């Protein structure tokens, strides 16, 4: 077996042991997210997830991908100019273990964004599911926050759909002030 073939066999074995049903690392754009969303839908159906679980998986996946697209500090540039539409680097993967789905994402963020994300997520972790649903409804009726690139519903959507509190971590800041942001939702 060649070294390349062995690397693929090792990777495939790892994926099977971890029950990885979807994995992507690279640049995210709206077009790429739409293609991945189709793949996630098909994989969720293939794994036998019930309709409500598929909806939760899909909406949480979209929110994670959108967060990477909006907040990753790794912006793809061409000849010193940001590409249009924007493309930002990150990764997502979905695994399944004992009837539960785990959605993971990771992307670099600058120090200021890391602190904003930490505050939002710590607040969400302090709420009950009823309080999360109440905040979600309130956010639907309110104006978009000025520092948000969307409607401000992403983390609330994931927290509402999750069966456990959202887990998150930040790596220690690098020399340039960026940290890796890791997020996991359990469905």
From TrEMBL:
UniProt key word Transferase: yes
Molecular function GO labels: kinase activity
This protein's UniProt keywords: Kinase, Membrane, Transferase, Transmembrane, Transmembrane helix
Name of the protein: SiaB family protein kinase
Domain of life: Bacteria
TM regions (residue ranges): 20-37
NCBIfam families membership: SiaB_fam_kinase
Source organism per UniProt: Herbaspirillum chlorophenolicum
Pfam families per record: DUF6272
């Amino acid at each position: 077996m060649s070294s390349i073939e062995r690397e693929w066999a090792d990777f495939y074995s790892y994926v099977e042991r971890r029950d990885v049903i979807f994995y992507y690392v690279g640049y995210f754009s709206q077009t790429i997210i739409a293609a991945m969303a189709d793949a996630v839908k098909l994989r969720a159906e293939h794994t036998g997830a019930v309709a409500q679980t598929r909806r939760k998986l899909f909406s949480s996946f979209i929110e994670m991908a959108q967060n990477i697209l909006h907040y990753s500090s790794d912006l793809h540039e061409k000849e010193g100019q940001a590409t249009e539409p924007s493309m930002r680097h990150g990764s997502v993967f979905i695994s399944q273990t004992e009837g539960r789905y785990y959605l993971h994402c990771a992307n670099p963020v600058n120090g200021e964004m890391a602190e904003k994300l930490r505050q939002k997520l710590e607040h969400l972790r302090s709420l009950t599911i009823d309080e999360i649903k109440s905040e979600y409804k309130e956010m639907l009726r309110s104006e978009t926050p000025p520092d948000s690139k969307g409607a401000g519903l992403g983390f609330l959507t994931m927290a509402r759909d999750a069966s456990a509190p959202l887990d998150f971590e930040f790596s220690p800041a690098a020399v340039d002030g960026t940290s890796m942001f890791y997020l996991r939702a359990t469905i």
